[in-house]
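Q: My labmate handed me this sequence with no annotations at all. I'd like to see what the chain might look like in three dimensions before we decide whether it's worth expressing. Could you predict it?
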Amino acid sequence: MPVGELFLAAFLQVLFDRLASPELLAFARREGLKKKLDKWRKLLSMIQKVLDDAEEKELHAQSTAVKEWLEDLKDLAYDVEDILDEFATEALRCKLKVKNQASTSKVRNLIPAYFSGLSPYAIMLRTRLESNIKDMTPRFKDLVARKGELNLKELVDRSSEKIRGTVQAPTSVVNEARVYGREGDKKALLDLLKSQAQESVDTQVSVIPILGMGGIGKTTLAQLIYNDQEVESLFDLKAWACVSEDFDAVRVTKTILRSISPGSRDDNDLNLLQIGLKEALKGKKFLVVLDDLWNDRYHDWTILFTPFEAGAPGSVVIITTRNREVANTTSTTEAYQLDLLSNDASMSIFTHHALRAKDFSSHPHLKDFGEEIVRKCKRLPLAAKVLGGLLRSKLQDRDAWEEILNSEIWNILEQRREIVPALMLSYYHLPSHLKRCFAYCSILPKDYEFEEKEVVLLWMAEGLIQPQQKEKEMEDLGSKYFRDLLARSFFQQSNDKKSRFMTHDLINDLAKSVAGNTCFRMEDRVEGSKQGSIFTKARHLSYLGDQYDGFKKFEAFSELTCLRTFLPLMLPYPGWCFLTSYVSLELSPTLRCLRVLSLNGYHITKISN
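A: Here is what I predict for the chain of 609 residues:
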């Protein structure tokens, strides 16, 4: 399921903002280019309005021409940003060169003086920028013309509906015999619930969040608690409601009211519904589960929560969420952080769904492949369940198991349309600025542990952090971006070092899917998991370093003329690794768009001027 268009929409919004910047407009007016840039904005606006329809058509594989159109659009967007970067670089150069203007003077006041000069450099720069702007315009017009040929229409954005429509909302019903590895979590949460259910607690109604990434089993744990016999005896009333990403207080209130008062009338008036719910809960000790809560707006939460306050002391609301901000907004106690399963529990889930058995005793010929497939699931229960179900009808087909083992797990799950939509929802709900930051993380290898500052500095170098307030330091804002992604379960804290982080393999695959061919990891080409060649229009590149990285490794890099990131990672012997002089003396000077060039860890004696 393509999610790159969500990234593309966020990217176009960045271009709109930069095209409206005072610095660029000042230069455009001075040089008589404002009308051309206005034309760009109009054409971009026409293109932006049909992105949703383009995604719809690509999603249903109606035409490869649509995919090509989207790729050309993304390529154009990057080229436009490169031009804007060149302009910003020259404006900064101007700021540094003009005397007596070095402290707080605004760049836009310097541009006219600099670009109106008649020096050969100023004339060459003006000519080059004007030429670049003129060269881009036909590409804009071509995309608009092809938009009409592809019959792309302007639609109200409904991407969330399309994604949600592929995910069946769970109910409160569970078969505990088919749940593995959550005994400790169930006991811990039951103890917490019982402590909160005591009438002596300070708050009238306690709220306990269950927090974790998509597919980790939050709903399953809530189901176990909801159906526990001991819990039955603690409460007068119980109700279960799936909230989902589109927060609808009327729907949720109606669902809860129907659960505890089956004879209540069908009404869509929130006021009447809340009056009815308040009366039904008044003086009663209740347990309510609000499954899959996304909305972190405090005002919305207080509206939904108000009728609950009529309940008796010791009442409890359990919510499940992927977002720590939601937990912080709603909770009266510390959120219960749900971790990945053990390898043994993952194996039990897989064998149950694949073999209808607890282990491989009856199918020893499949054990070796099965164990490796489970390892690729990286302890995520939903992944083990989906892959097990996929192989359920192939118990005599060892080749089919080997094929699954050698395939990209992401591609398999994407075809099954089960766990991928669940992960896509997390990405869909990211703010635009976080979408680009997350997509950039696709250059980080699987199982790679990173520090917060390392990633923040990369984002800064790539221009992905855009301060909205002058008093906000860029690095502090980058740290906030990082913590936001961590709170939304895109990053996980390392088990070994608390200062280091990593991404689950499927989250890493999500980032790769979002970034498309603009981010490239060299090991993907080596392992043959992608097209098998370096993408000539890749913008960001990383590779795993060796002790001796010779010319052969980089000979194809000369094709990557638009490269922005050159990032070696995980060098085996930092300081004692050697890099061909071709990179530092010949290749790097030709990469005019570079923002990140790291040679850290290599023993280098010469660099280009």
